[in-house]
Structures are given as structure tokens and as C-alpha cells.
């Protein structure tokens, strides 16, 4: 594996070359360019699992195959909306395929996720105007196609800017994909721009398939306004 030395802050550290397997897909193609932009069709991102360098590698933060590990990558503005509550907007133009940020929060077990969801539903019944929760369930389908691994990320109490990215039944301006880092046991959920975004574009992604209600006892109305919207936020029993 070819590697070079690059400056990072006040020190020099090892970075991987283009042949590093951590930055390649199963066909040997690079996932991201030198700026951390996805090189493929962004419509396929939700079906992919990307790979990056991690604790098992000898490289450091300057390595180009650690693009999703450097925090929020764009400027984000938070504003209040009459029907949506908090809305996140791009603070500057964003390139198609650009990494935006991780969906960060507490990674919890499925029993704990079920317990918290019941608590959040109860709170919503007691106070319908209360802010919604930010418990996201992501699934990684195994190569066999017969099973999947599930990760529960709860950003309700602790998270990052992605906590304010609203749902869009039409797919949204961002695509959610899983990233596996060498040496990390759990995947991370990463958000990339589906297309070129102008300054002021709302940052949204698809939490799940459109819902017509009838899921959990307390299901929130959806205000995305997309043509595919069926009236309710995606919901499922954990």
C-alpha cells in the first residue's frame, strides 16, 4: 500500500495513497475524490456501504480516506419555520456528492431503543406540541441478502447538526449511507449532498419510506410538502 507524509496542524503524519484498500469498493474503484466528494451516482448511496481508514491503519486525520471523520464539513444555518420548527439550511454552496456530516448521537441497543421510543411516544401524548425525538434506525444488509445488522442512533439528547435535518418523503437534498472504518466494530451513518446545492437550500434526508399513518399509537404529521408525501413521518415499532 503506497503512502506519503503530509502536514497536519503542526506535525507531519502518514497518509495513504490511491491504492489503499480502505478507499476502494469491491470493484477496486475509489469512493471519494481528494476533497471528500463521492465519485459515483449519488442516487445509489443509500444502497452502499463505504469503507474508510480507521484505528487499524497507520495513517492519521490528514489521510484522504478519513473524509467523514473530521466533523461538520459545511456551513449550516439554523432557522425557525412556522410548521417545521427548526430548519437547517446550507450556509454556502455545496457540491454534488460532498460529505456534509455524520448523523451523530448515542449508539444504543435495540431494547434501549424500544424503551426510549415508548417514552418519547408517551411524552408526545402528554404534550403534542413538544419537539419530536431524533432516534434513527439504520440497517446494513449482509452480502447474503438474507439478514441485516441494525444500528440505533439516538440524537435526541446528544447529537450534532444533523439532529436538525428534517425528513423529506421525496428523498431530500442529502443521501444517508453507512461507512465502515477499519478497526471500528460499528458502522457510522454519513450524509452526502445528492446534487449541487445553492446557499440557503434546506438540508433534508429520507428517514424512511413515506407513511400514511396507522403505525405506532402516536405518529407525527409530516410537513415536507413533497409530492410523494402521504401525510405522516416514517414510523415503525422498534
Keywords for this entry:
single chain; 238 residues; mainly beta; four-stranded mixed β-sheet; three-stranded antiparallel β-sheet; 1 helix; disordered N terminus; SET_dom_sf; metal-binding; metal ion binding; transferase; methyltransferase
Topology:
Blueprint: E1 3-8, E2 11-16, E3 49-52, E4 76-81, E5 85-90, E6 99-102, E7 106-108, H1 110-126, E8 135-141, E9 148-154, E10 166-167, E11 174-181, E12 188-193, E13 204-205
Parallel strand pairs: 3-11, 10-13
Antiparallel strand pairs: 1-2, 4-5, 6-12, 7-9, 8-9, 11-12
Pfam family, one: SET
Protein name: Post-SET domain-containing protein
GO molecular function: metal ion binding; methyltransferase activity
Structure commentary:
The chain is mainly β. 7% of the residues lie in helices and 28% in strands. The protein has one helix and 13 strands. It has one helix at 110-126, and strands at 3-8, 11-16, 49-52, 76-81, 85-90, 99-102, 106-108, 135-141, 148-154, 166-167, 174-181, 188-193, 204-205. The strands form five sheets. Strands 3-11-12-6 form a four-stranded mixed sheet, with no helix packed on it. Strands 7-9-8 form a three-stranded antiparallel sheet, with helices on one face. A two-stranded antiparallel ribbon has the order 1-2. A hairpin with a 6-residue loop joins strand 11 and strand 12. The longest helix has 17 residues, at 110-126. It is globular, with a radius of gyration of 19 Å. Mean pLDDT is 85; it is low at 1-8.
Amino acid at each position: 500500500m503506497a503512502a506519503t507524509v503530509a502536514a497536519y496542524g503542526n506535525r507531519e503524519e502518514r497518509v495513504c495513497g490511491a491504492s489503499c484498500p480502505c478507499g476502494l469498493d469491491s470493484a477496486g474503484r475509489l469512493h471519494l475524490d481528494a476533497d471528500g466528494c463521492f465519485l459515483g451516482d449519488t442516487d445509489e448511496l443509500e444502497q452502499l456501504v463505504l469503507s474508510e481508514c480507521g484505528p487499524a491503519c497507520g495513517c492519521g486525520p490528514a489521510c484522504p480516506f478519513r473524509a467523514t471523520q473530521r466533523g461538520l464539513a459545511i456551513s449550516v444555518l439554523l432557522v425557525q419555520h412556522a410548521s417545521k420548527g427548526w430548519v437547517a439550511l446550507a450556509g454556502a454552496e455545496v457540491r454534488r456528492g460532498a460529505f456534509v456530516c455524520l448523523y451523530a448521537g448515542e449508539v444504543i441497543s435495540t431494547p434501549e431503543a424500544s424503551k426510549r421510543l415508548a417514552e418519547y411516544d408517551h411524552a408526545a401524548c402528554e404534550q403534542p406540541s413538544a419537539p419530536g425525538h431524533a432516534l434513527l434506525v439504520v440497517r446494513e444488509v449482509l452480502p447474503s441478502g438474507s439478514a441485516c445488522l441494525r444500528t440505533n442512533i439516538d440524537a435526541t439528547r446528544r447529537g450534532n447538526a444533523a439532529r436538525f435535518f428534517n425528513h423529506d418523503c421525496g428523498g431530500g437534498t442529502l443521501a444517508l449511507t453507512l461507512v465502515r472504518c477499519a478497526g471500528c466494530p460499528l458502522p457510522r451513518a454519513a450524509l452526502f449532498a445528492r446534487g449541487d446545492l445553492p446557499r440557503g437550500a434546506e438540508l433534508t434526508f429520507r428517514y424512511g419510506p413515506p407513511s400514511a399513518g396507522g403505525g405506532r399509537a402516536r405518529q407525527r404529521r409530516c410537513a415536507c410538502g413533497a409530492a410523494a408525501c402521504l401525510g405522516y413521518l416514517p414510523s415503525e415499532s422498534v
